[in-house]
Design brief:
single chain; 360 residues; alpha+beta; 6-stranded antiparallel β-sheet; 3-stranded antiparallel β-sheet; 13 strands; elongated
């Protein structure tokens, strides 16, 4: 019976999709059995699409709400389901592995023996899937870079979705948690530390409330959120989120550990697959050719030109603005880059854009 419920779980996670869906290989079962008890896996398999009450989920299993509700609550605490309040009722949803369950495991930033074991199992599963994929064709990007808007030069159109401050001002509550990618790397190998700050991932609104309620992170003020942005930009991290205008999280990514950014930057022309819609320009009178911007560029898109002025390769430039925030002379500004599609309005529109690009 236990073997069958995990085989069903593999199908469930395959339907949920994401970067690492359920795939019938030994590494999947090793991760699944560490994450889910057989009872939890059965509940996961029975969950209808979207968010539903414990009563609805119990009915799908032929059980009572009293039997299922405590297990759902425990699963939410473990980051195996998402949970929120809707119209005064507690509802539960089934997230994919990524983005979702895998990240939830390490948002607390703890270093227990189970954390270390789980990190090794997840890494083995990710490697097994990545090795079997081979080269992938670029479609409409699911992720986007959000540039450093304070570096955008006057005269350029700056939309609300280009301004991280607008999201911080709009949503309540805000939460802060540990970077999954960098923390997972250190759980596997404590020496695998790039030195970047870890407590820089933010969630907004309903997603933030889930993180706060389940103690995966802590609630922060708007002033603290702005300080996180400043700290991230100073360190040279890249602001990323879902490629839509309505977002509920911000990751501050390094190029060495963060999965989405690292994979895009490994391609010959990352600037054509992931871009903020801006690119840097230099003030020749202010630039001292110090080369700091070249060293900071996560996309390796800059070289020093013949006139002792950096030159940008737009096929590699992702428009993050890390070069501008590190310039001691303030010689770098950001300008609009034509031809970059605007982000879809919401998740439904993003899915439609991705499907349309694959069908083309």
């Amino acid at each position: 019976m236990a073997e069958e419920v995990y085989r069903q779980l593999c199908d469930t996670m395959a339907r949920r999709g994401g970067r690492y869906p359920g795939v019938d290989i030994p590494e999947f079962y090793a991760v699944a059995e560490e994450l889910f008890t057989p009872e939890e896996a059965a509940i996961c398999n029975a969950m209808p699409r979207g968010f539903n009450t414990a009563e609805t989920i119990a009915a799908a299993m032929g059980k009572t709400e009293q039997e299922v509700a405590p297990v759902l609550e425990a699963m939410a605490d473990k980051g195996l389901v998402s949970s929120a309040r809707k119209d005064g009722e507690r509802v539960y949803g089934g997230p994919p592995f990524v983005p979702g369950i895998f990240e939830f495991q390490f948002m607390r930033g703890t270093f227990t023996e189970r954390d270390r074991k789980l990190a090794r199992l997840i890494l083995a599963y990710e490697k097994a899937l990545d090795s079997g994929r081979g080269p992938t064709e670029e479609t409409f990007p699911a992720t986007r870079v959000i540039t450093v808007d304070r570096a955008i030069m006057a005269g350029n159109e700056v939309h609300t979705y280009d301004q991280l401050v607008s999201y911080i001002e709009k949503y309540e509550p805000l939460s802060l948690s540990t970077c999954y990618c960098r923390h997972a790397a250190k759980l596997v190998d404590e020496k695998d530390d790039c030195g970047m700050p870890d407590d820089v991932c933010m969630q907004f609104g309903t997603g933030a409330q889930f993180i706060i309620d389940r103690k995966m992170g802590r609630q922060i003020t708007k002033e603290e959120a702005l300080e996180v942005l400043r700290k991230s930009e100073e360190a040279g991290l890249v602001h990323t989120s879902a490629n839509r205008q309505e977002i509920d999280y911000i990751c501050n990514c390094c190029s060495c550990h963060c999965v989405a950014l690292r994979n895009i930057l490994s391609k010959p022309k990352p600037g054509l697959a992931l871009n903020s819609g801006f690119h840097p320009v230099w003030d020749a009178e202010l630039c001292t050719a110090c080369g700091i911007c070249i060293d900071r560029c996560p996309a390796k898109a800059l070289v020093m030109g013949e006139e002792d002025l950096p030159v940008v390769n737009l096929e590699r430039c992702i428009g993050c603005g890390v070069c501008a925030t590190g310039c001691p002379e303030g010689a770098i500004g950001l300008v609009e880059r034509p031809g970059i599609p605007i982000p879809p309005v919401d998740q439904k529109a993003l899915k439609a854009a991705i499907m349309a690009s694959r069908a083309a």
